[in-house]
Amino acid sequence: MSSVVERVRRRVPWSQSRMLALLAAALAIGAPLRTMFYLSDVVGDPTLFLALTALSLVGATLLARVLRPPLAVGVGAVLFAGGLGAYILNLSTNPAITELLGDTAALLTGRSLLQIAKVRLWVLSFAPAPVFLTWYFALRRWYVTATLAAGTALAFFALTTDAGVVTTLLGVVGIAATIGFGTLDTLSADEPTDLTKRPDAMTDSDGTERAGGDNDGIDAGRRAVLEQLAAIIVVPAALSQVPITRDSLLSYDDGSDGQTVEGSLFDAGESLSVQGSISLTPEIRYTVESEEPRYWRVTSYDRYTGNGWVRTGNPTPYDDQRLDSPEGETRTLRQEFRAESTIGTVPAAWKPVRYSGEPSVSVSSEGGFQPDGTLSTGDSYEVRSELLVATPDGLRAAGTDYDDATIELYTQLPDSTPDRVAERTAILTANAENPYETALVVERWLQDSKGYSLDVDRPDFNVADAFLFEMDEGYCVYFATTMVTMLRTQGIPARMTVGYTSGQRIDENQWVVRGLNSHAWVEVYFPDQGWVQFDPTPSGPREEIRQQRIEDASSDESSPTVGDGNPVEQYTPSDTSTPAPLTETDGTETGPTETPTATETDTSTGTAGASDTDEGRGLRLPELPSREEVTLGVVALLGIAAGARRSGLSERAYRAVWLRYQRRVDPETDVERAFQRAMHVLAIEHRSRKSGETVRAYLDAIEADNRVRRLAALRERLRYGGEVSEAMADEAVEIADEIVSEH
């Protein structure tokens, strides 16, 4: 057994450089793996992804010594082709190849993978090939080829915008370090493997002392590699500190320090990131003619990532066909919208079925309209909507016969969602007997227990969990996100919706909609009925803030006008109540009947693990740095270390300490160390020993004094006599200290 181990050891020299190269290769493939894990975690349990990744790594490790590289490439191709085939076979639409090509083109031009409905299947199909190839070639010491596989995967995720700044930076550092340390591994292949000897203490095979053991070619290669590593690590680490903003053709900034509510909700995009503190803008966006006020819906989002929302699926062209009505009984509402500023959305009451006007529109995946371009001031369009006519009793009786597609899409939660969210919701809704009552309880509990504020600190982790357990106040996005999450933990399909509230009424059937009317709410699905609106945000405080902002704007500016220059004047006191989602068949609005209340267990003690006491809320612990800040800090330190090594600063610092301080070990080690310190000083003051030059000849050539000769004699006794006393070691160290201090 020992002979086998020895043969393996000789065949696989695990030098320091190779170890560093393999660690860097792990970092290189770890960057895209981190992105894939995040995507898998968002849409479901990542256990299968972790299992596939582990199998790929184990397979690459086992095959690295027995499988030739061309065959390994073939294995990687088979893994990729097999995964791609599995993905295509599971696509629900036809033709699958056309959809796949369309998705691929969209991904390569900046679309996030999270916008693909079956992203988890895509990740499981994609992951094994780059993992296997990267680790296989790294173990084979084909470092450039290994980084090609890892870099291709990372570049793809960078194009899809799924790899963040920190992940991309780590991947680039890993790729650069793999190539750099791999080069060092190759350069040091012929070096002695005894790393315990210093270069200046080596001897030739015949016993003649060598003046130095450094290989000039190896040193030059190391310097070149370290120079590249320093540049590649330090520069990205510094650039990563520069704020990165997302440019947009549409700006909703009102000039204030914080982002506006409108800007935080949507710009007709396919994703929404939950922000921190925001502000309100009173700028007029639309005038609306309608027989009744409604929530003017823009879009909804189905996939929750923990810190934001994504709308999956692809829009389809609208060619004047009538869209599907809700499943239940409906009535028709006509609305006419006129844009009062450049805008990129086409709001409408839910559910819109017909559209006419400019610009042209597409049909989004959830069945609403989205513009193909932007609206300019004066552009107008007309929408006909079919409003759901439902009663509380009808919704209570709707049941839970959801189809599989609805369950899969609208009950999804990140696997990182803490269990305490479901536990708290179950306690709150213990008295509810059906999904409708559950939604009402959650809606009213959030309205009653949480305050409304635009000045909040964005949580570092899961937004819904933080708002439910750690925050006292928030604005509409926080309320809606939390309610959807709570309902989904109970298996109730729900989605987050954004748009505008009804606005300021200025005539019998006319409303002015401003940026400050931007809002987020919740839609819950009921079988044989459709999507029903719920709004967990407290309406009173919200409307007070909005009304105050309108009054402040009116006092600072001239009276705004709409349409053909008509001034904006209040027709009746603003309707601050939430437009009711439920209507009787005769058109009269009605509220829900008797509703179960939240159980007292939660309001008094909460669930296990929740710190909701006054003492807990009053205790403020110092904020820890985020994972991104820690990562960037580590990368910056690595860059500084590489730069110090490249400039020789680290070597000079080490030499300065090594020269001036000698830790006592044993007489033999102490004498040898003292001799080396003295020789280093002599090399600086005179010259280094030549190759093959004996110590005595060297000392004669530089006319060394008696102290140095005495130290050389002590060292010679050590080398040939084999023993030195403690007193001799003390003498040697004292001589070396004197020589160093004089230097």
Automatic annotation (TrEMBL):
Compositional bias segments (type: Polar residues): 569-580
Domain Transglutaminase-like, chain residue ranges per copy: 468-538
Entry keyword set: Membrane, Transmembrane, Transmembrane helix
Record has Protein transport as a keyword: no
Residue stretches of biased makeup (Basic and acidic residues): 194-216, 541-552, 614-625
Chain intervals with Low complexity compositional bias: 583-611
Ranges that cross the membrane: 20-40, 46-64, 71-89, 119-137
Organism: Haloarcula sebkhae
Keyword Membrane: yes
InterPro entries, alphabetized: Bact_TGase-like (IPR052901), Papain-like_cys_pep_sf (IPR038765), Transglutaminase-like (IPR002931)
Domain of life: Archaea
Name of the protein this chain belongs to: Transglutaminase-like domain-containing protein
Pfam family, one: Transglut_core
Region (Disordered): 192-216, 533-625
Source taxonomy: Archaea, Methanobacteriati, Methanobacteriota, Stenosarchaea group, Halobacteria
